[in-house]
Amino acid sequence: MASVEVEVEELNGDDQQDKKQKKHNSGAADLERVTDFQEEAELSNAIANAAQLFVEKGNREAEAKLAKEVELQKIHIKKADIDRIVLELEVTTSIAEKALRENKGDIVEALKFLLRD
Amino acid sequence: MPSSDPLPPKENAIFRKILKCYEMKQYKNGLKLSKQILTNPKYTEHGETLAMKGLTLNCLGRKEEAYDHVRRGLRNDLRSHVCWHVYGLLQRSDKKYDEAIKCYRNALKWEKDNIQILRDLSLLQIQMGDLEGYRETRHQLFKLRPSQHASWIGFAMSYHLLNDFEMANSILETFRTSQSVESFDYKHSEFLLYQNQVIQESGDLDKAFKHLEEHQGQILDKIAVKETMGKISLKLKYFDKTVSIFMDLIRRNPDNSEYFKLYLEARQITDAESIINFYNEMSKEYPSSLCVKRLPLDVATGNVFEELITEYLKRNLRKGVPPLFVNIRSLYRDSQKVATIEKLTLEFVANLNSTGHFTKDDSSNGIPQEPASALLWTYYYLAQHYDYLKNTVKALEYVNLAIEHTPTLIELFVIKGKIYKHAGDVEEAYKWLDEAQSLDTADRYINSKCAKYMLRANKIKEAEEMCAKFTRDGVSAMENLNEMQCMWFQTESAMAYQRMNQLGEALKKCHEIERHFSEIIEDQFDFHTYCVRKMTLRSYVDLLRLETRLRDHPFYFKAAKCAIEVYIKLFDEPLKESSTAEEANLENLSPAELKKMRNKQRKAKKKAEVESAQAAKAEKKKEQYNKSKQQQNQDNGDPEAPLLDELIPEKLERTEDPLGKAIEFLKPLQLLSKNLIETHLMTFEVYSRKNKILIMLKALKKAYAIDPESAALHKCLIKFTKLLEQTLKDADEIMKQVLLHEITNELPILQKKPVEINEDFLSRHKHRADALIAAAEIYYDQSDDNQSKAIDLLKSAFKLGDMSLEHALLAYNLLFVEGKLGELNQEVKLEFKKLFNDKYPFVPCFKLESL
């Protein structure tokens, strides 16, 4: 795997030559040399076990979210209704679709719903 | 997963070095190394190396070559996560975040557990405010690297941002117990304060208090601990604890008014006398504290107030404290106090003039005479006092006395300008500010103030020249001010251009401001990694929350409002093509006139030539400057962000879709400034031109919820009821159902007839000038027969106490500028002229000769 985390190796850059020029601007020059590279601090292994608990909770949440979306997808909606909502309220298709689904495909209710929030 | 197109060991080692060079910003070395691989005939088309070379080129500012290489690399190796990742990074550097996210997702398809890609993805998600997505990615990272600090912090924060405080805290708590703390561990201290913030936000204050108590030894920001503990314990009604905490804080800083306020709250002292006594005692302990002298003035009344304020005024006038008026302005809410202050200061003036003491008692008590400047500062105070009370004549009288006394004090000229500004004469106002400025040209504050007053008087060129004294040499001031994101200047310029009907220029300024806001949001990118690494999480979360509501800033609101108004105007009266307008005129001219015009044109052409030569010179200079700037950027290894389209006024004012542009400015307001009624009224205006009746209705609903009695809203309601009648006739079943439901349940006022609504409104607000003016306009709009009724309404507005200069200008526009009350006969005109001029003699357009 060509990971970006590889061992440190010294390389002499040729960007040293203009160091003198930047004397007055040393703050900015220092900032330029800052990289995003950082050695990761490692925690003890004991904590890794505690982590498992949170991982599982995260998993469960993801599942619940998926289940709700599947439920919503089952509702039948008409393309024409989506277009009508987009035309009347100038919202995005996804908002129109969501409003329709959450109101069981009833366009009047969906419009009222969108006028409320 | 192994690379789909692996290199042999030697080349692979070089490839790894390229990656390293990229990370360490050693781009030139990186290029050399990639050349080593690519010159090998076997690997000239090696995808990943090409991609990395492209990425490195991009960092050196060679954008086109970069895209070339990266795209070629990707084509050669579509199944490489490196190529996709690099393409994503390239898009990111061009701020195409949506595209970048797609690329990262593709990369993850080939390498779903790549930490680096997941990290980059999480950065973009937080930058875009996709909090759900951010949590999923952080979850993923947490699963893969539970042994790293950043995994825990990022995971906890993703829950915190979604307001799941319980989960966030339990992650943080588990993390905390695993930490071994060294002494003076700043990161740990910040961590604890962050955890405490999370607990506080969860609402469990008891827990937050205990948490602080338990860990305060490890927290280095002692003041933050004390202040937070004090505030929490006050909310929990642990009064004894609170009292001792705030006493302690007052000892540390006896000039923080907040400490005193919360201390008194904890002591549960509410009656004025005890509060004054408390401050009295405190002033013995802290004689140099200003708080203990100023704060009792808020609660004292009657004789006690008079006694205290006398001392306070004397002390400050003797010392010559310029912001004295601002310091006690909040007392002016109480008319009794205003009267006392006025009485005292007038006495001071009389006594200082006769004996040189503030009061008669002072002179009989043998107190030494006051310094000569005391009289000057008293005059200065009185000028501000009368200006605040809108008594322009008296205010000018005192400021002139002060100037006579000491003709070199800058503050006096500033106040004189301000008095004229408040009286409605912007021209005279700026002249006095110019005078003030000339007394100290090295003072940047006064320079800026003067420029602002010039802009109010539509003197944009003069204002630019004024600012040029402090902007960089060699660049036009306008450009430099834009570069420095000097937004007060730009908003004021935009509004000045709008007033002068130079709409393109106004739009240019508005768009410039809009770009500043985009840039500020861009700039948060660096903080996503930095803050987590440095553990400055409290400030980081504050920053994230600030960025999501950034455009609720008044500067944005002003710019957006100006832009929307201009675009609406351009929709209503589109500009003609400049050339066709001229030709149309030519057709109906006599030969003599034609000759005259040709002469004129020839002269104009000559003039234009000279000007364009000058402009070309300036252009050249500008180009050179831009070039040198680009050069500079490249030297710094930071190529300029993608070049935005140049904003050209002529193009902006001839846009094909003015309403669409207006909506772009409107959207952030709808999201962030929804508690301002103007937002919804502008929404109404824009969408009424697009005939979107439901959006108009929604805007009215929101405006109505904010202020059902607003005069501006009233006009919109009337407009809407008229439209509604027609719409209900033509509407289909769906529309009818929705509209009728909304009208009966949400805005029943719309069921009435327009005439009725107007009558009702008027009878409710007979005492409000703005209501009378709005009603008058509607009366005449309903029927020409109502002109005399409308005129009577306007006249009666002048008798009201709340008639202000803004109202007068509104009425003036209605009558004389927009002509919305129809043709007026000479007698009525004269009558109004007198009314306007009597009430506001300083406003230039109200002067009798100018009408």
Describe the structure.
Chain A is mainly alpha-helical and 117 residues long. Chain A has two domains: 1-63; 75-117. In chain A, 58% of the residues lie in helices and 0% in strands. Chain A is built from five helices and no strands. Chain A has helices spanning 26-33, 45-73, 79-89, 93-102, 107-116. In chain A, helix 3 crosses helix 4 (93-102). Residues 1-23 of chain A have low confidence and may be disordered. Chain B has 851 residues and is mainly α. Among the domains of chain B are: 9-168, Alpha Horseshoe (Serine Threonine Protein Phosphatase 5, Tetratricopeptide repeat); 300-407, no CATH class; 710-850, Serine Threonine Protein Phosphatase 5, Tetratricopeptide repeat, CATH 1.25.40. The radius of gyration of chain B is 34 Å and the shape is globular. The termini of chain B are far apart. Mean pLDDT of chain B is 89; it is low at 579-584 and 631-642. At the A-B interface, helix 1, helix 2, helix 3 and helix 5 of A face helix 1, helix 8, helix 9, helix 10 and helix 40 of B. Chain B: Residues 617-626 have a biased composition (Basic and acidic residues). Chain B: InterPro entries: NatA_aux_su, TPR-like_helical_dom_sf, TPR_rpt. Chain B: Keywords: Repeat, TPR repeat.
Question: How are the secondary structure elements laid out?
Answer:
The complex is a heterodimer of chains A (117) and B (851).
Chain A (H helix, E strand, L loop, with lengths): L25 H8 L11 H29 L5 H11 L3 H10 L4 H10 L1
Helix pairs in contact in A: 3-4, 3-5, 4-5
Chain B lengths: L8 H15 L3 H12 L8 H13 L3 H14 L4 H13 L3 H14 L4 H14 L2 H14 L4 H13 L3 H13 L8 H17 L2 H11 L6 H14 L3 H14 L4 H11 L4 H14 L5 H4 L1 H4 L2 H18 L4 H5 L6 H20 L5 H5 L8 H16 L3 H14 L4 H14 L2 H14 L4 H13 L3 H9 L8 H7 L3 H13 L3 H20 L2 H10 L2 H12 L5 H19 L5 H10 L3 H45 L13 H4 L5 H15 L4 H12 L4 H14 L4 H20 L2 H13 L8 H11 L4 H14 L4 H11 L7 H13 L8 H14 L12
